[in-house]
Amino acid sequence: MHKDLNIRYLGTAAAEGIPALFCNCDLCRKARSIGGKDIRTRSQCLLNDDLLIDFPPDTYHHLLVNNIIPEKIKNIIVTHSHQDHFYPEDLCLYSPWFTADIKTQMNVYGNKDVFDRFSKTVEREYAKQDMSKYISFKIIKCFDKFTIGSYTITALRANHKIGEECLIYDIEYGGHRILYANDTGIALDGEIWDYFNGVHYNVVSMDCTGVRKEVKKYHMGLPDNVKFINKLMSIGAVDQTTKKVITHFSHFGGLSHNEIETEAAPHDFITAYDGMSLTI
After folding, report:
1. Which residues pair with 46 in a beta bridge?
2. pLDDT digits (tens, 9 = 90+) for 25-79
3. DSSP state of 13
4. How far apart are CA 219 and CA 209, in angstroms?
5. d(CA 223, CA 213)
6. How far from 131 is each of 91, 153, 263, 267, CA to CA, in Å?
7. pLDDT digits over 252-280, tens only?
8. Cβ(206)–Cβ(246) under 8 Å?
9. Is omega for the bond preceding 19 within 30 degrees of 0, making it cis?
10. Whole-model pTM?
């Protein structure tokens, strides 16, 4: 039996945000002037009000402006250790010294580098406290398959940070399947492409840091997105019914939201914006 799956794009920018914190480029000036969908915070998604993907420094803002009830969220999956995707200083506020009436643990799933970053933050700020009572960290690696409630999740190796096994995620829920592919280039290992052979995605969510520029490695732009989708389509993982979303935009791409939509429309891509909700 199929169950609806809601994907809420809480933040849709790369590390600097749009407008970038200290930047005065043409796009950042335009974004400050017109606001709306051109204001982009650091990348994060929420599935069905209870599963967070990534934990950037804008998480507090995201919960406030989207009227999200924090107590419903007990699980976070993290793609990698870059600060715009994992900000442990705020995660540590999930403790009785800052939060009243904690009844359950927060479960965080991420690679060893994410765990190390969390551990160093705890050691620096809360060395005398046992944070493991409140935050349960589960180290995962490529091809680990795990269950969180009604979600079945498989971690897959991204093409991103050298020296770290960054992850993208295959997420199954209620008869639906999502490929969440932020912070990766298209140069994935052969075994990852082998994995895609034989699965079918209802949604593919893609990094588009370069916007109209081809990036090839570590991130994607629209030319990479087209190649990525075409390759997935050639092996049957994507078809005409698949919703194809682009997100994680950099101000260096130089295009406003409307301009990105215009560029993306011929490819049947959905251009994400902060607060966008997609239900399948």
Report:
1. 8, 52
2. 999 999 999 999 999 999 999 999 999 999 999 999 999 999 999 999 999 999 9
3. B
4. 6
5. 7
6. 10, 25, 47, 47
7. 999 999 999 999 999 999 999 999 999 99
8. yes
9. yes
10. 0.96
